[in-house]
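Internal ticket #5521
Category: modeling
Description: The requester needs a full-assembly model to guide mutagenesis choices. All entity lines are attached below as received. Residue total reported by intake: 710.
Assigned to: D.W.
Attached entities:
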Amino acid sequence: MLRKKPAVFVVDRVDFKRCFSIIDRKRTAPSAVSRPQNATRSTADHAPTATTAMNLLSCEPGVPHRIAALQGGPGFRARLYNLGIAKGQIVTKVHTHAFRGPVTLQVGQSQVALGRGMAARIRVEALQ
Amino acid sequence: MKRLILIGNPNVGKSAVFWRLTGIHAATSNYPGTTVSFKSGLARIGDEFFEVVDTPGAYSIDATNEAEKVAVELVETGDLFVNVIDATNLERNLLLTMQMLERGLPMVVALNMYDDARHKGIRIDVDQLSRFLRVPVIPTVGISGVGIANLAQAICELRKQVDQGVEFPRIHSHTPEERWGDIGLLTARVQSLEHRHHTFLEWLQDISLQPRTGLLFAAILLYVAFRVIRFVGEGLIGVVFDPFFHGPFLSLANHLSRVLRDDPLLHHLLIGRLVNGEIDFVQSMGMLTTGLYVPVGMVLPYVVAFYFVLAILEDVGYLPRLGVLLDGLMHRVGLHGFGVIPVLLGLGCNVPGIMATRSLETRAQRFIACTLISVGVPCVSLQAMILKVVGDFGLRYVVGVYVFLGVVVLLLGQVLKRLVRGALPELILEIPPYRLPSLKLAGLKLYHRTRGFVTEAVPLVLGGVLLVNILDYFRFFEGAAVLAAPLVTRLWGLPQEAILPIMLGFLRKDIAAGMLIPLHMSLPQLMTACVLLSLSFPCIATFTVLFTELGWRDALKSIGTMVVTAVVFGTVARFLFALGVG
């Protein structure tokens, strides 16, 4: 009787990344402006090219990227700005921590840890 | 007298420079946010006296948290400025420098940690930097004092210029985007990087931050830290404090006891009651016996041991890494990774722990952090006594108490996170490089913290013992015990006299825990009582800072939360411990 697998157990159809992105959105400050649907989605299924913008969560670790845009309120932008995370600056993602932990970035000479929801709102582009 | 303000990014060594200029010790460590309020002192520089002010670190003139607000407000009151910048991180530090220059403030730049920069292969052309900025730039090493004399000279010259009413160079204002762009160009002109091999410290930096190895590293490190604290604490008790108290001090007390035999009241106050005809340092409850033995003989050794280990962890720069690793966990209780730092400080004493919450961004976060610290983070005094009271039955029972408190914090955090209104932002934290601690500065910090404990805790304990004895004399407690009996006996399953230590916990936790011993309770009861001492009202010092830090409205809410938590989880603890131990 139990041999038949119920349909809900088909795991590969569940988009876990998307589940997480919903949780992340709940956790970030209410100042979060409406973001494009794929802002926090992994780009693993959309192969990144030099022109499509990706965010800091989805970009490749260990490779320098240029910041294309910061999506968020002025307070959010100001805090990142103070640390040198501003449009046009170059950052490298170093680690992504487990349990929905932060990402660590190399910004100039300093290392900065940044919550996931914030990292998802930083659009980056590959250097030419 | 002119006011000289030290201003700069967090963790660039302003406090070390302050110490060098004034000779006044200000706590230094290796993480952003050590200084949360300003400290001022008198310094004689050249022929003149200055009021030197050490400010909390600020990344820019637009404040983003309480601690930065303090710094920014101080800028308005200064006459002269020293902008302390970190030579190993020139680019980021220049943002604040630019903003200061845009205001045309009379300023000297101290290029601090200059030695570190050279070790790292960072070469900075100081003359050129000075020409570009149009202010004097002085390379310094705050920790060792190199370059401080030059800095003092530059301050004197600046002072003369201020007196002459010289117009200070004011650079044109930048738009935010231009500013980083210009800083990038400037840095490229004055700084060159040499490539070199990874050092041991850098390797350690990597493995302690990497997601996989980091947690293992943290577990090992915290275990070692705990063992070292116990080893040092027990060592101090065994070698220094016990021989003293049970040797010369006991014979002195016995002598005094014989002298005072004819004066029962004074004997009662100073020596206390004799247990089997002898003085018992823990149970006698006299000011000169228990009143001195508990804070000095039992708690002080652990205070020294704890702050010794904390100073090393702080100065090396490990704590921010722990914050990053535990960020995910801390979000469960509505905080982010930086919350680890106030909690760890709170394990020493709740007062600095609560002060450190100023580095958290929002009111909601500060409320949660302060409440959780007062509820579930036992200070070292209380911990030392828990180790004594419960630890005699076996270390695993102590662990039981800690695990219970940890679970309470997690559950309460979950509840508060949902109830508290306001934003709970995510982590933004700069991770400093590891630095070898300066033994002198770490020693000074240990000394000041220990001295703080002795001068603040000992009088309070003595006062507490006196109060107990006086109230005992008027049979106040019998009445209180009867009134509180339903709560204490029915809900918590403790003897009704236990209300006395729990109430006294308001004064000092250590003396309160010591008073549990003469009640001859069973192990589960002792564990419940220890848990209650932590959960219920904080001690009077914590109480005061709660009000000043949160404001009376939030502080009252926080205290209400504590009362409810104590009643509910005290009852839970009673049944759980009875089950677990029996």
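Resolution: model delivered.
Comment from assignee: The domain at 15-126 of chain A is CATH 2.30.30.90 (SH3 type barrels.).
Ticket closed.
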